[in-house]
Structure formats: structure tokens, C-alpha cells
Amino acid sequence: MPYKKFEEYNIEVTESIKKNFESIIDDLGEDTAREGIVKTPERAAKAMQFLTSGYEMDAAEILKGAMFKEDYDDMVIVKDIELYSLCEHHILPFFGKAHIAYIPNGHIVGLSKLPRIVDVFSRRLQVQERLTHDILECINDTLKPKGVAVVIEASHMCMMMRGVQKQNSTTTTSGFRGQFEKIETRTEFLKLISSDLS
Ligand SMILES: Nc1nc2c(ncn2[C@@H]2O[C@H](COP(=O)(O)OP(=O)(O)OP(=O)(O)O)[C@@H](O)[C@H]2O)c(=O)[nH]1
Ligand SMILES: [Zn+2]
């Protein structure tokens, strides 16, 4: 669900996170009673629950909901899937793009389900490496394709806004299973995701 109304959040959890944010904002030296801030703990509680809503979702079930028997056995690529996640070390965003490919083995999957599972695993406290493998293993175990590949390119706010303060570095992670472990297949995939014509 892209957007939850306040009533749809668990009231006790929201109340607890809200109290914690009140305390954090106070500790940071802000006036929690100030007009612009007074509703911020509640807003932040809702925002954080949305940004971690992937814990409540089952990615395998999402894929299983749209698997179709089909003989097509060439490469399927969905590239440039935007993602927003939170680094588990600083709870600051990292964001970028995922590129996913698979080679069907009797079943294809509804195309929208690939971006959906990217969201399920992104909306958690993550590291980019685990996010890459979560997506890869979920497709591998559920669809059981002849091969699957996942590449993620991302920028980490914890390296940009603070800490080492590098604005232009991006991190690339990748995972390959089955036929993508063969150099020719992997090279074809990497060529297609870097081409504007793919
Ligand atoms: N491998 C990996 N590291 C990450 C990711 N997100 C953030 N980090 C890193 O996690 C590390 C945590 O290191 P620490 O030394 O414990 O934390 P810190 O003192 O805040 O480190 P600095 O960011 O270097 O200031 C940092 O090097 C971050 O850049 C990620 O997705 N994958
Ligand atoms: Zn971080």
C-alpha cells in the first residue's frame, strides 16, 4: 500500500514512536511545543513506519501472486527501478537504482512485481549488500528461474551529509545466480543495462 492514513497505523506503536521522537527533538534542543514542531513527533512516527513497512510484507507471496506458465526462455530485464532505503548504521537514506534480470524456467512473473519486491526489501533497515542478496535470493527461490541477476547503484546520505562527506561517490553491488554465473550471459546483461537501447 503506497500511503496509509493515520487510522491505519497501529495506535500503540505510533504513540510509542511519537513519545520517543518528542524526547529526541527535546534532547536536540528544539522546543517541542513550537507551532511548526508540535505535530512533528506524530508525523515522524508515521513516516518511519512507512519507511520500514517492508517488515510486514512477504515478497515471495507478492511474486507467487503473478507467476504465469510461459515457454519464453530468453533474458527479461527490468532496469532503472528507483529505490529508497535506510542504512542500518545511521538510519539515514540511501537511494539509487536497481536493475534486475532473469531467465525464465517455465514461468514468467508479472513485471510490476519486481519493483514491488525491491520496495519490500528497501523499506527496512538495510545495508546495500544485503538488500541486493535479499532481492536475488527471493527471485531465485520463488520463481526458480534458469538464472537471476541483480545490480544496485546507490548513494548513501551518511557518506554525503555527514562523516566522510563525499557527494559524488556511488556504490555498486551485484549478485548473480544460475546462467548469469557464466561470463557471456553476465556480460550481455551488463551491456544491456548500460545501453539506452535496451
Ligand atoms: N558495507 C556497507 N557499509 C555501509 C552501508 N551504509 C553505510 N555503511 C557504512 O557503515 C560504516 C559504519 O562505520 P562506523 O565506523 O561504525 O560508523 P561511523 O563512525 O559513523 O563511520 P563514518 O561514516 O566513517 O563516520 C560506515 O563506514 C558507513 O559508510 C552499506 O549499505 N553497506
Ligand atoms: Zn550509514
Structure, explained:
- Belongs to the GTP cyclohydrolase I family.
- This is GTP cyclohydrolase 1.
- One of its GO terms (cellular component) is cytoplasm.
- One of its GO terms (biological process) is tetrahydrofolate biosynthetic process.
- Homopolymer.
- This protein is of the alpha+beta class and 198 residues long.
- The protein folds into 2 domains: 46 residues, GTP Cyclohydrolase I, Chain A, domain 1; 135 residues, GTP Cyclohydrolase I, domain 2 (2-Layer Sandwich).
- It is 38% helix and 25% strand.
- It is built from 7 helices and 7 strands; from the N terminus they run αααββββαβαβαβα.
- The strands form 2 sheets. The protein has a 5-stranded mixed beta sheet. Strands 1-4 form a two-stranded antiparallel ribbon.
- α1 packs across α2.
- The two termini are 30 Å apart.
- The model has no long low-confidence stretch (mean pLDDT 95).
- The site of zinc ion (ZN) has 6 residues, from loops.
- Guanosine-5'-triphosphate binds next to α5 and α6.
Give a short overview.
This protein has 198 residues and is an alpha+beta fold. Helices cover 38% and strands 25% of the residues.
Features:
binds guanosine-5'-triphosphate; 5-stranded mixed β-sheet; binds zinc ion; 198 residues; GTP Cyclohydrolase I, domain 2; 25% strand; single chain; 7 helices; alpha+beta; GTP Cyclohydrolase I, Chain A, domain 1
Indicate the topology:
Layout lengths: L10 H17 L12 H12 L7 H6 L2 E3 L6 E12 L5 E11 L3 E3 L3 H10 L2 E2 L1 H16 L3 E10 H4 L10 E8 L4 H11 L5
Parallel strand pairs: 2-5
Antiparallel strand pairs: 1-4, 2-3, 3-6, 6-7
Helix pairs in contact: 1-2
This protein binds guanosine-5'-triphosphate (GTP) and zinc ion.
